[in-house]
Amino acid sequence: MINTLSGRLLVLTVIFVMIAEVLIFVPSIARFREDYMLNRLERAQIASLALLADDMLDPALEDELLKNAEVFNVVLRRDEVRQLMLSSDMPMAVTETFDLRDASALVLIGDAISRLLENENEVIRVIGAPVREAGLLIEVTMETAPLRSAMIDYGIRILILSAVISVFTAFLLFVVMRIFLVRPIKNVVGHMQRYAAAPEDARRIIKPGAGVTELREAEEALKSLQTELTQALKQKERLAQLGSAVSKISHDLRNILTSAQLFTDRIEASEDPIVKRMAPKLVGSITRAVHLCESTLAFGKAEEPSPTLTLFALDELVDDVIEGERLAVKGQDIGFVTDIPLRMMVRADPEQMYRVLANLVRNARQALTATGAGGEIRVAAEETYTTWHITVRDDGPGLPAKAQEHLFTPFQGGARKGGSGLGLAIAAELMRGHGGKLSLEHTGPEGTQFCIDLPKGDGTLS
């Protein structure tokens, strides 16, 4: 119970209410002491009126008047004349004098606390102003034991009342907090537990309904989080199923392409000059398709094969990429330009580098084709002491803002309608495998440019 929010709230409420009651108790007991002594002054004044009416009082009557006023003697000052109106024997000498006419609140509180802490019975003198302006002052002497006893009795009643009020207030606050705070929090916790049991079930997403603003905001945030997580889990499941299907298709397609490779040997034996010129490119395309299928199978296992680094001429590889894309732009006003130093040697995996460049050039060609206005695709390269820089630029309309947000994220970075969004993700992963980086340098109405930074590392020169 004490470890629950309700239990701790109940205990803290009782403690705070008791502290508040104690803060009220101290001035209250001081006020009670002041009222007690003023009451004795008023009684003494009433008793002195009997003497003013008759100068000679029977000693027994005088003693009865003093006992009724609970004082030992009464002094009344009228017209600058101080008169001892009533008197009796005192058990001891006066120890202190208290003037109630101009006493401040702090003085009254200090005197009250001192009286509660003092156990000895004393005789004190109390001075006050007569009621109804019946004189300049009235002065009495009295014992402190009855005063202290009355103060203790009053204090006990106040503390008991404070305890009852504290418990009742704490109980009401406990009930209200359980209704408006604890119960809604438990409902949120229950929703979270039910959702955790089956996060793919959209029916278990919380429906905000709290009346408290802060809890309502927490429920809205939880709903948004659960919705995004459910969608992510569904997408993950679909991607897993897609990966399995693609792996199966790639496996069968690889077998088909391997058989097609065998037929190319016959084609290469042809005497037709056109066939002789096209056969090597056909063989190269089929070979790359086989490698792509094998790589897709590896991607389905969440891994790309490690690159086999060799030295090769970059300009020849770029020519092969552009030659393949030229066949797709017949009849369109799209030009290809290369700016690569002759026989610049690059140390990388040729097949993987071909895939990266082919992907970038193909994306640029598709962007230009979509506009219908044509344009130019430029592939350039340069090298420094430590790095090869390769850029692919087009004059297209630029990438949409949505595509830029998840440019290298599988199935999310597609800039073309109907695209899978896998191309750039795979290309970026292949470059990371080389220790390099594929990045978007700029995009906009003037065109788009991607950059490949490939480190030379050790052994780049043969």
Automatic annotation (TrEMBL):
Reactions catalysed according to its record: ATP + protein L-histidine = ADP + protein N-phospho-L-histidine
What SMART domains does its record include? Answer: HATPase_c (SM00387), HisKA (SM00388)
Record organism: Sulfitobacter aestuariivivens
> Does the keyword Transmembrane belong to this entry?
yes
Q: Give the matching SUPFAM superfamilies.
A: ATPase domain of HSP90 chaperone/DNA topoisomerase II/histidine kinase, Homodimeric domain of signal transducing histidine kinase
Indicate the transmembrane segments per the record: 6-30, 158-181
Superkingdom of source:
Bacteria
- Could you confirm whether the keyword Ribonucleoprotein appears in this record? no
Gene3D superfamilies associated with the record: 1.10.287.130, Histidine kinase-like ATPase, C-terminal domain
Q: Which residues form the Histidine kinase domain?
A: 248-458
Q: What is this protein called?
A: histidine kinase
The UniProt keywords, alphabetically, are: ATP-binding, Coiled coil, Kinase, Membrane, Nucleotide-binding, Phosphoprotein, Transferase, Transmembrane, Transmembrane helix, Two-component regulatory system
List where this protein forms a coiled coil: 215-242
List the molecular function annotations (GO) for this entry: ATP binding; phosphorelay sensor kinase activity
Entry EC no(s): 2.7.13.3
Q: What is the lineage of its organism?
A: Bacteria, Pseudomonadati, Pseudomonadota, Alphaproteobacteria, Rhodobacterales
